[in-house]
Amino acid sequence: MRKTVITAAILTSCAGATTAMAADLGANTTVGGEFFADFSHIQLENQTGPGGAKVEAVPSGNGLDVKRFYLIVDHRFNEIWSADFTSDAQFASAGTTTVSTPGGGTANALTTQTTSGGVTELMIKKLYLEGAFSKGFAIHIGAYTSPWAPFVESLYGYRYIEKTSLDRLGYAQTADWGVNATGVFGANLVNYSLSVVEGAGYKNPTRTKDVDVEGRLAVNPVSWLTLGAGFYSGHLGQINATNNSFPKNTATRADLAVGVHIVGLHVGGEWYQAKNFKTVNSFAVSAYGTSAVVNTATVGPVSDKATGFSSWVSYDFTDQWQAFARFDDTKLSANVNPNLRDEYWHVGAAFKPIKPIDIALVVKNEKVEHGSNSVSGGDANGSYTIGGSSNTRYGWFHEYGVYVHYRF
After folding, report:
1. 186, burial (CB in 10 Å: exposed 0-12, middle 13-18, buried 19+)
2. How far are the Cα atoms of 229, 322, 367, 373 from residue 289, in angstroms, in the given order?
3. Average pLDDT of the chain?
């Protein structure tokens, strides 16, 4: 839901001006927003101690998280051309050290940086110019919605509870920099999205040697059924002029999805196979999650493949009350550590007191077997490592709490 804005003091605050100013945005500009928040208890236990003992790990504890806040500005120039700006934010903390400068002085240099800490970074999630030339062809230039992950989010319907499986495991981006084309044919019988992108995601607009390609084709043969297929191929923004001659892999992904909506019942699922997005550090140690596209000039990257599925169901008892559940199962490393596995599930009930607000009571559980995995989520826009550093170790993640979704 968006609201038309006549004056915008926010433009002044963003510019850092000391005198309040007003800007007439006009009838063709809208401003809206969306945020996800939760208050929950987390218990993460990993088998890292002697004899496989369970050891509690970060982010165990109680807390309030604002995991996402989007500020969305849309402007329409005419019947064909429009533009969108969507901001995102993450919490960051950094470590520094004092170094000597050429002039004999000292300066603080960045040594480490993580995505959960005491500083908030404002990022561009989407920033694009759109040319809608027909119902079957629209072009988007800039940072735009990726073809696959947001499509699955639309079938799943509970993004504010948890990211989709590919997104949380690091096999897909929700937006990226490049050029995209979309279109719809018939009464939404067929729709498509095709992107040529830099490959590192919207947080990293890095110029690369080659571009990546991602696409999706979806059909709605009947009103209650959606079927989709997608693909990805590229180097994830990691190949440049310096390492272009190094031995390298190509990251590829194949996707299938189905969504069924009959009266208040929503049932769906996603299957995927992601090759060379991630691998383990070595055949002996299953420290999963390193880059699998390029290594060094003399040591080539290890090829690896992940295969998994995600399934979900929800039911709308009334316009205000819903119940939902989801189960994911992913074999993370078919070539190097075939026993490495990540299982995730959640169940919950949601209440909508007014149209823009959803409030849900949720229980989550995750288990990693025979190694470790880094998962995007947990606390405020951070990540957590679940499992141990050898292929005999396990990890368990438990969470329960209240989740809130608000749109304006």
Report:
1. exposed
2. 26, 36, 16, 6
3. 85
Element containing residue 156 per DSSP (H, E): helix 149-156
pLDDT per position as a tens digit, 89-144: 766 544 444 444 445 454 444 334 444 445 567 889 999 999 999 999 999 999 99
- What is the β-pairing status of strands 137-145 and 175-185? antiparallel
At the topology level, CATH places domain 30-67+130-407 in Porin (2.40.160)
Residue 65 near residue 37, CB atoms below 8 Å: yes
The answer to whether 408 and 32 have CB atoms below 8 angstroms apart is: yes
Distance CA 387, CA 369 (A): 7
Cis check: omega of the bond before 59, within 30 degrees of 0: yes
Token pair of 390, please? 């050898």
Q: Tens of pLDDT along 348-398?
A: 999 999 999 999 999 999 999 988 888 987 665 578 889 887 777 899 999
- DSSP character string of 40-57: EEEEEEEE-SGGG-EEEE
> d(Cα 362, Cα 349) in Å, to the nearest integer?
7
| Domain extent listing, the chain | 30-67+130-407
What SS3 state is found at 354?
coil
Is the model more confident about 251 or about 297?
A: 251
Cα 248 to Cα 138, 199, 204, 207, 327, distances in angstroms: 34, 15, 20, 18, 34
List Cβ neighbours of 136 (8 Å cut-off, separation of 6 or more). 183, 184, 185
What is the C-alpha to C-alpha distance for residues 122 and 87, in angstroms, rounded to an integer? 7
How far from the centroid of its chain's Cα atoms is residue 358's Cα?
20
Measuring CA to CA, how many Å separate 379 from each of 41, 48, 174, 204? Answer: 10, 21, 19, 22
Residues facing 123 on adjacent strands: 88
Strand partners, 398: 43, 365
Dihedral over Cα of 61, 62, 64, 70: its sign: positive
294 touches 175 (CB < 8 A): no
* pLDDT for position 112: 41
| C-alpha span between 372 and 340 (Å, rounded) | 8
222 burial class (0-12, 13-18, 19+ CB within 10 angstroms)? exposed
